[in-house]
Amino acid sequence: MTSEVLPVTFRNKSGHRLFGILHRPAHPCASGTAILLLSPGVKMRVAPHRLYLDMAERFVALGYTVLRFDFYGLGDSEGDVHEEYLADLYGAVQVGRYIHDTIAAMDWMQSTHGTTKFIVSGLCGGAITGLLAAVKDPRIVGLLGLAIPVILDGSRIDFNKYMTDAQLNATRDGYLGKLASPGAWRSWIRFLTFQSDYKMIARSLVKPVLAKLRRAEPMTAVPAPSEPADNTNPYFAPAFRHMVSTARPVYLIFAEMDRLFWEFEKKFVERNRPMLDAHAAWYGMHVTKDANHIFSFREWEEDMLEQCSRWLRCFEGGQLGMADRQGMEKAG
Amino acid sequence: MDPVSAITTSAVETPMFFGNGAYRLFGIEHQPVGAPTGAAWVFCHPFAEEKLWAQRVYVSFARMLAARGAWVLRFDAMGNGDSEGQFSTASVDTMLSDIDSAICRLEQSSGISRGIGLLGLRFGATLAALAAERSSKVGKLVLWEPVVDGGKYMQEMLRINLTTQSAVYKEIRHNREALVRMMREGATVNIDGYELAYPCYEQASAVNLKEGRKRFAGPSLIVQVGKDGQPLHSDLEALQETYPVADLQGIVEEPFWKEIKRWYWAAPNLFEITLAWMAAR
Fold first, then answer.
1. Which residues from B are below 8 Å from A300, CB to CB?
2. What is the largest CA-CA distance in chain A?
3. A298: nearest Cα among B214, B112, B87, B124
4. Which CATH superfamily is domain B13-149+210-279 in?
5. Prediction pTM value
6. What is the ipTM of this complex?
7. Architecture of the structural domain at A4-154+231-331
8. Mean pLDDT of the region B9-20
9. Are B60 and B28 in contact (CB under 8 A)?
10. Could you tell me the CA-to-CA distances from A223 to A135, A229, B69, B78, B202 in Å, in that order?
11. Cβ contacts of A296 on chain B, cutoff 8 Å
12. Helix or strand run (H / E) with residue A254
């Protein structure tokens, strides 16, 4: 089966020309659903190590049309993005900077190719953009998100302060591992020449001890009124709830060694169990063992692609949300 | 003039595929805005993930040149970006062949057949320098922070694999020697997700731009990107000596071809010095 790969351009709401690549299957799937691969961070429409090309190839083989494109100010597209720091740019993405570009892509696909149903997919910033866009646009019928962030990035945010226990443990293990490695002298030079992150070292080593001491204390510390409770993205949980409560399936894939997975568990799953249980039929998750944030090793990428394909086959076969549908039929 | 503030989107930027033998390469052609000056540049991208980090700087500079009346072709080598093929089948040979094809493509579009300029960053600069040695169509050369010693650079690539092993498995399961042996036996080594195969590793490792006098006799600009007060690197001075006509300049910018804290959509000092050099020729 051969597919067609075409360079395309279209304009967003502000008139900026956005550049993309359209993959058209030789044998389109019956539902006519297209997949939008939304750009992660600043790594444009190809994504780290050309991940989106592999994803597009796999999805096209299942009969899906795939559009991957650059948001304004990034990749080849027109427009400007002038944050001084990457963290601030990521933070802007996490609160929905590119929702309108995503909608513009759907408008273009609808007017040019007659497509009216879309699955939004992407890594990290691409995944959160898709989730937030789904709140605004009912043409989005599903989310296939990789390493979706639940926190807000920003150059002024002190990440040390908001690290989960798992992150602190991993950081501590990393420091201790370095001391035991043959290249320990490099770490010592960094340490002795004031290049190390002393705050982080202290926190990762001392916090477990403090936690033990605190267990004996009857009172818990109260944060100062101006201090945020944590760095969780306030838009995440409502958007997630909106999606699953409107019977639009969500499938999330995480990398086991990625801090974003630990943050998702701690800052979203633990806090939203009742909601997740209520909509369990519309939500699924997979964790790729050992993998890093970008699924760089081939076996990690293959595991992720296999899970995506399995979910997409279920989507096309109308098998997602079956438990919920059967429950509604019984109730009816 | 602030070179960054002068960036404008060129009137016509055309994304397209063009052929090189059995595969198609992706490129974006920037047509000159206003009266063409007769200048035409092919941009040669850096290696693996460095390409993605530097992408927007390339786009911004291409738009600046187009705004000054030049033709520019930015393209992805086989197995890179949106071009066809697998990274594991790319090598120095295929990358040089791709540059030749890009030059031909720009020649067809622009009607400019001689004096085409090549601009590259890091290993893209290395490839530009090698391409200039074999093509009579190349008239100018701009080398941004070129990789002079390919062997050393390939060792840096292997180090990325070792770092990933260490982070994931808390140990080094395959050391450098084992990685090279595996490649020699036909396997690939993963570099931040890119599968590096032996032909590429071997050919890149053999590159040493300091060796021998260069055949290319056109004007060349070599730019060292570094910190304030940093002396010129002896490798770059040695490289300059191999060219009949070459300028070597040091400028202050951060290493925007890798992950840093700043968002680099333009490199003002690098752009300014390069534009001034181009204008003088």
1. none
2. 71
3. B87
4. Alpha/Beta hydrolase fold, catalytic domain (3.40.50.1820)
5. 0.89
6. 0.94
7. 3-Layer(aba) Sandwich (3.40)
8. 86
9. no
10. 32, 7, 59, 55, 58
11. 164, 190, 192-193
12. strand A250-255
